[in-house]
Amino acid sequence: MRKIFILVLFTILLISGQAQKTTLTLNLEKGKEYRQVTYSRATIIQDINSQKMPIVMTLKGGMSYTVVTVNPSDFDLEVKYERLSMIMELPQGKMEFSSDKNDKKDIFSTMLSKMTGNTFNVKMAKNGKVLEVKNIESRIESLFEDFTDIPENQLEQLKAQMTKAYGAEAFKGNIEMVTAIFPDNPVNIGDKWTIKTNLESGMSASMTTEYEFTDLGSDYAIIKGNSVIETEDKDAYIESNGMPMKYDMTGSMSSEIKVDKATGWIIEANINQEIKGDAYIKENPQMPDGMKLPMTMINEMTIKNQ
Which CATH topology does 24-304 take? Predict the structure, then answer.
């Protein structure tokens, strides 16, 4: 009888241990600063008249998030870029831009420099979704106040490109890849859930990700994701380098994200994307017949908290 009792007790303890679930969520502290440092290497291969034209873009950036208010279901954050740089490797040669440069003749580096240090406001839900981004467009608008010698049409084109790359919607999509990853309910290791995200950086796309809770340590949790990416409106043209373009592309993304067990903030994330399809240039005065451009984009990204 004693042996049976011990066996039953052991079974109950084992089952209760297995049933103990983990709450994965953001639990940020008021007044504290949280950081993200991003390194991205994107290879874009365009097929122009059956000739492959590769472009490699290496981006580095540092951001800080200061918690202003902790609300019942979200956080009010002050966000700022601390450092930005870009290297573009083109068939014609290499171009380098950095917020650290002090060269008024380097327009893009000057704009990157102006973007650093200025705060904008973000409301982020405890599940990592970005609910609101405020003041970032006005920050972008202020980048161009000193460029009075640039023709108005070129200035508007630059503004549109910077807004597309760094505006509210682009920021939201880029950040949510590593913050909007948490389930609505507590989970066990091995549990899976699905999250949809909109991407707005160069082209509009939707991303559907199946996440899985794969590991739990004493001070961290690991979440892995597999995503399907698809352009949203295949008939919508956007301005790119002064020409209307539309995209018909699909792809995938794999991610492994290590978060702090107590705060939910990212410790390290490794992300790999591959997107293929076609870009279409609409008929225009520069290109009366338009053009179809088969394209492949491969992106390797690492994000850390320091």
Answer: Lipovitellin-phosvitin complex; beta-sheet shell regions (2.30.230)
